[in-house]
């Protein structure tokens, strides 16, 4: 199985690159942000709780997202592999993911990090907010809070995979296709 974690701060291009990776490698895309936004649209209790935190740029609790990923892994038993996009975002989530995959005799193949500096991220997210309809993209304070959450809680996840020799970082600034080719080179070298 090819199990990739696409990593990077909000606005790094994880969603865009995931779409291209799904097409090429026929992987199942698991974006916890998308699953949460779907819960909000459905008006579920989980969605309502998560929305408050998401609108403030805060992470939702680990047990919520871990439960969602566990369900998705169970409902995609025959998948050739997964792209985890926006998950894991804490070391506790990374450890839980390892345990979940272990019960399926599988493991993470590689974490690929997209490196983009903060000023570029803010500009990209504000621009995306004009069309995305995402309340958390529209406000610069919320964007900064999301980047802050990333730096304090999510950035340490890179070390977790580095210690397992499963970490690659690439430049996330440039043309979409150029970045995609670099990602594919990393995958082909696995
Ligand atoms: P994203 O679409 O990945 O930018 O996620 C949007 C928002 O959903 C984040 O700012 C968090 O509030 C929440 N979220 C998504 N994934 C996670 C996760 N793995 N852990 C905690 N919160 C998450």
What does this protein structure show overall?
By secondary structure, this protein is α/β, with parallel strands linked by helices. It is built from nine helices and five strands; from the N terminus they run E-H-E-H-H-H-E-H-E-H-H-H-E-H. The protein has one domain (2-27, 79-188): Rossmann fold (3-Layer(aba) Sandwich), CATH 3.40.50.300. Bound molecules: adenosine monophosphate. The site of adenosine monophosphate has 17 residues, from helix 2 and helix 3.
Task: Write a short abstract of this structure.
With 190 residues, this protein is of the alpha/beta class. It is 58% helix and 14% strand.
Walk me through the topology.
Layout: E1 2-7, H1 14-25, E2 28-31, H2 32-42, H3 45-55, H4 62-75, E3 81-85, H5 91-103, E4 110-115, H6 118-132, H7 140-154, H8 157-162, E5 167-171, H9 176-188
Parallel strand pairs: 1-3, 1-4, 2-3, 4-5
Helix pairs in contact: 1-9, 2-3, 4-5, 6-7
Any descriptors?
single chain; 190 residues; alpha/beta; Rossmann fold; 5-stranded parallel beta sheet; 5 strands; binds adenosine monophosphate
Supply the CATH architecture: 3-Layer(aba) Sandwich
CATH class: Alpha Beta
Query: Number of domains in the coordinates?
Result: 1
Terminal Cα span: 12 Å
How can the largest sheet be summarized? 5 strands, parallel
Query: What is the alpha-carbon Rg in Å?
Result: 16 Å
Unreliable sequence segments: none
Ions, cofactors and other ligands present here are:
adenosine monophosphate
Overall body shape: globular
Side by side, the strands of the main sheet go 2-3-1-4-5
Number of strands: 5
Secondary-structure content class: alpha/beta
CATH homologous superfamily assignment: P-loop containing nucleotide triphosphate hydrolases
Strand content: 5-15%
The number of helices is 9
Note the run of SSEs as H and E.
EHEHHHEHEHHHEH
| CATH fold-level assignment | Rossmann fold
Helix % is 55-70%
Mean pLDDT: 97
